[in-house]
Hints:
Blueprint: H1 3-11, H2 18-30, H3 35-48, H4 52-63, E1 79-83, H5 91-101, E2 106-109, H6 120-124, H7 136-146, E3 148-151, H8 159-170, H9 177-190, E4 195-202, H10 211-227, E5 231-238, E6 246-247, H11 249-260, H12 266-282, H13 289-301, H14 304-315, E7 334-339, E8 344-349, H15 351-363, E9 377-380, E10 387-388, E11 393-399, H16 402-412, E12 416-419, E13 429-434, E14 437-440
Parallel strand pairs: 1-4, 2-3, 4-5
Antiparallel strand pairs: 5-13, 6-9, 7-11, 8-10, 8-12, 9-11, 13-14
Helix pairs in contact: 1-3, 2-4, 2-8, 4-9, 4-10, 5-11, 5-12, 5-14, 9-10, 12-13, 15-16
The structure holds uracil.
Uracil binds near residues 84, 183 and 207.
Amino acid sequence: MRAYDIILKKRDGKELDVEEINFMISGLVKGDIPDYQISAFLMAIFFKGMTPEEMSALTMAMVHSGETVDLSEIPGIKVDKHSSGGVGDKTSLILGPMVAAAGVTVAKMSGRGLGHTGGTLDKLESIPGFKTDLTRREFIEQVKNIQIAIVGQTGNLVPADKKLYALRDVTATVNSVPLIASSIMSKKIAGGADAIVLDVKTGSGAFMKNLEDSVELARVMVDIGSIVGKKTIAIISNMDQPLGRCVGNALEVREVIESLKGEGPDDLMELCLTLGSHMMILANKAETLDEARRKLIQVLKTGEALSKFKQMIELQGGNPEVISNLKLLPEAPFISNFNSYKKGYIHFIDAQKIGICAMKLGAGRLKVGDKIDHSVGLELLKKVGDPVDINEPLVRIHARCPEDAKQTEIDLAEAFVVKEEPADRPVLLYGAVTEKGYKAF
Ligand code: URA
């Protein structure tokens, strides 16, 4: 078998068989196939797509490229959750403790931010002392003990994804349905969960910019899940504007703590309750979505969800006092406002541009391994649909210095659209994809 022939076959739109896909993935991981041939292969997939059989074969080849996690010694149904990537998306940090407090076992391996999107691990590490690099044993023992742990990947999980993602990032092949689906699902399958809730984002800040493509991505992932016997459901949610109010690591943790105290923004709370209700159903902790939602609202009200977060922080080496004293989180030295240039209503906030502004301030990384600053970021004071006066603050900028803040103000001018006529509040949740297909809400 030769990589050349396989690239040619895909380039010409033909279907690859399992052996050919396995050959490419094992050649990638062993270093036998050079990056330029893998890049050409990725571009051929980007343009010609893949059949469902090819996508399953690619996903499983990626799963078998490294170690897998066995969570079977942890009792109960382990439900994982994954977002296809967004701006201001801190749902895992609210959802995890909330569903764990309501009885769901959460053994979660999360990732770091790349490009304009943030990562759960970076957010958690803004809590002083918090460790995300538990050993496999520590991870399993913690989940058995308190029903929740959120850590970085332990061991050599899906090495093929690390290499493929790095190449996709520099060859303009990230936003391809087969490549995103296999990347996400291989990690979820290797991570050992029994069931999976996916949050597939759609809109300007997402990899999939329109609803049709997002539903297609969701369908493919749900199909892969059902082929490997893991019950999977995907919720399609809006990423046309950032989720919640804060973008940036410590700022987002602050918003998480406020949300667990019952003071979270409406869009963020609604998404958490929706995803959380599906996790409850998959874990057999509720029979209906209404019952699940009631139970989740209850653990928020009683403070059990907040206590669960505090317990997790403590066990993972972080300072649990942040819960009652938000000043213990890193704070940026320079704060300024970006004001509206006109009176009217907010029609659009470009989530991707906001994500890039936060990244340029230091909250994210341009390439793998870049160091980030946990303290910096943006607080949105207005969202789409809100009325605004001339010179009224739209964003509070948390920066390292006045020069960074000034540059951000210039960049932010392109992220907002303000018009005189009123604007509707955007739809947050579009629908769900299950094995039965797509159903709009
Ligand atoms: N998240 C992933 O893990 N992989 C992708 O390809 C896109 C989003």
